[in-house]
Every structure is written in C-alpha cells, then in structure tokens.
Amino acid sequence: MDSIRAWVATLCAACIAAGILQQLSIRRSGFSVIKLVLALYILITAFEPIRSVRTQEEWFSVPNVDVQAAVPDVEAASIRTAENTLEKMLAGELTQAGIPAKHVTVILEQINDSLTVNRVELELAAKENAESVQKAVRRFFGIEVPVIIRKEELK
Q1: Residues 50, 40: Cα–Cα separation, whole Å
Q2: Distance from first CA to last CA of the chain, Å, rounded?
Q3: How many C-beta atoms surround the C-beta of residue 47 within 10 A?
Q4: How far apart are CA 15 and CA 146, in angstroms?
Q5: Do β-strands 147-151 and 114-124 pair in parallel, antiparallel, or remain unpaired?
Q6: CB neighbour list of residue 14: distance below 8 Å, 6 or more residues apart
Q7: Planar angle of CA 124, 126, 132, nearest 5 degrees
Q8: 43 vs 108: CA distance, rounded Å
Q9: Which pLDDT value is given to residue 16?
Q10: pLDDT of residue 28
C-alpha cells in the first residue's frame, strides 16, 4: 500500500511540475512541443512502477543462442542432395546395363568453387565383373572416376 501511495504522490508531483512549467513558458510558438515533452514526462513517471517490477537482468536479458547450431549448413546440405541424386541416377544406369547394385554411394568433393566426384562405392553381387562396372561408371560420369567395389558374400 505504501508503494502505491508513493507512486500516486510522484505522479501528482509530476503533473504539478508539468502544469507550472507550462504556465511559465512564455513563447507560444513552441507551446505544442513543450506540451508534448511534459506529457511524455508524465507518462514515463506513470509507467515507472511497471518497469521497476522487473530486475535489471530480466529487463535487458538476451537469450544465449549458439550461432553455429542455429544456422544450417546449406552448402553441406546441397552437396548431400547432389550426392543422393547422382546415386539414384547411377543405380538406374547400372540396372539398365545389367549390373544390379545392392548399394551405390557417390562421394563429391568441393575444390574451390566447384564439385568433383571423389569416388564411387558400390556393393555388387559376387559374380559381377569389375571391368564392366568401371566402364558403366565412366560412361555415366564422362570421366574416369575411382570406383570401390565391395562384393556381396555368398551364404
């Protein structure tokens, strides 16, 4: 109750001070500016208790955010999307060539501002010929690409 009484007294004092300053202002040309400043002073005084309810730390607290965790790595995601697309296309090409691949992995490498095919990893049936696989991969990419072939073990 004492805090409310103190707040009302402060607000009344601000209003009285604003009224006296308004009466003392001689220049009528800047009268609207003076009224605006005095009204703002009264409003600030009126809202001071609301601001003082919060502690200084709460009032200016900024959440801690790890910038690296918040920003997605768009470049890495784009490279992975390109790898997935090439894997599907190469698997289709190998199937058309009569080479059924169990698993196809294309690994791209970024050098400066361009992407190159680092290697291709394939899991094939034990009977597949490595030379025909290499030829199909070369035909697909148009360049010589290192191919790692894992043969499926017969059970």
Answers
A1: 16
A2: 87
A3: 10
A4: 84
A5: parallel
A6: 41, 42, 45, 46
A7: 65
A8: 63
A9: 81
A10: 61
pTM strictly above 0.85:
no
Per the rule left: phi > 0, alpha: psi between -120 and 50, beta: everything else, 98 is: left
Query: What does the buried/exposed string (b/e) look like for 3-21 if buried means 16 or more CB atoms within 10 Å of the residue's CB?
Result: eeeeeeeeeeebeeebeee
pLDDT at residue number 133: 85
* Residues 25, 33 contacting (CB under 8 angstroms): no
Q: What is the pLDDT along the chain (155 residues), one digit of tens a residue?
A: 677 787 788 778 877 877 777 777 666 666 677 777 778 777 777 777 666 655 545 555 666 766 666 566 778 888 889 899 999 998 888 888 888 888 889 998 888 888 888 899 988 876 767 888 888 889 988 888 888 888 876 55
List CB contacts of 3: < 8 A, sequence separation 6 or more: 49
DSSP string of 37-80, one letter each residue: HHHHHHHHHHHHHHHHHS-HHHHT------HHHHS--HHHHHHH
C-beta atoms surrounding 128 within 10 Å? 18
